[in-house]
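Anyone opening a protein record will find just a pair of labelled lines. A complete record is shown below as an example.
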Amino acid sequence: MNEIQLKYGCNPNQKPSRIFMEDGSDLPVTVLNGKPGYINFLDAFNGWQLVKELKEATGLPAATSFKHVSPAGAAVGLPLTETLAKIYWVETQEELSPLACAYARARGADRMSSFGDFIALSDVCDRDTARLIKPEVSDGVIAPGYTPEALELLMAKKKGNYNIIQIDPSYVPAPVERKQVFGITFEQGRNELDIDGGLLSNIVTKNTEVPESALIDMKIALITLKYTQSNSVCYVKDGQAIGIGAGQQSRIHCTRLAGQKADNWYLRQAPQVMDLAFIDTLGRADRDNAIDVYIGDEYEDVLREGEWQKRFKVKPPVFTREEKRAWLDGNRDVTLGSDAFFPFSDNIERAYKSGVKYIAQPGGSVRDELVIACCDKYDMVMAFTGIRLFHH
């Protein structure tokens, strides 16, 4: 089959809509369940490329959670700590498969943004991964295959309407890609850049020590950025993106947005948050919303009389700004990637507040020396890749 008719395009008024192969060959995907839409397929194809490259670069199973053609989270399959399992609502006591761990990390990095996501998996979806996907609010999943047990679980989602796509992992797209804007065709060579260790070998700071774990995190940051709408910045720690800033016109706004998400990820691990006693009837999404408000500047709204009882069994303590700052100071050895050079050192100053130690960016700004000096001030390690990673 070389064509799939869609209900509509980005919006209901945009008809007709379809995906198809211009050369008449068969599509490399099969819809096993549901009726994926235009944006679903955009997320699915971008997400699949991301996890495929993460797997190739690290040798580990990978997963990503996509929303509106940018990842909300991406991760490789490293084991979950007890703390991460708790803040990601992973309630099973069983040891999870590496792919399931990758998915839990990808989904858990920014649970607010992942609400209603499209998932991409690098490996055949197994029962463990499907069990974690089933209770989450999600539009669909793409993977190279599904075990019978996993398929049965997923097909029960959304009253049997959950979108399940299988992709041929051997599919290789044409080296030239095209798209139309305003009736005009754009053409370019595909971005086939290989994110490897050689790309990260040009260390420009006084500190040149990059442990293997940080090298993996740098690769994850850059591959994630390769499929994130520009401008974009990505914070990574221990094999998973913890903050992604996408589609901002200003580089510092990307850094701030991604940094705030990274801070929220770490604040969720604070004792004040871990000990929150939610009422039994409060669902996962509402718990995520309550946590987001509690750790934000509007926490007093949650603690007002008549408000906290809607979410908590007991009134939670005030999480003061000073307490939050003290907790955030414990976040260390974070990696940061940028899809283009940092034009000012203010990006480094903001990154330092979120525990950044390792940076990968193209370099090439007239202010490179000021940016390097700021990194040296904080004993950071920075690699100039020489390669821009814009994605539009």
Observations:
- The mean pLDDT is 94.
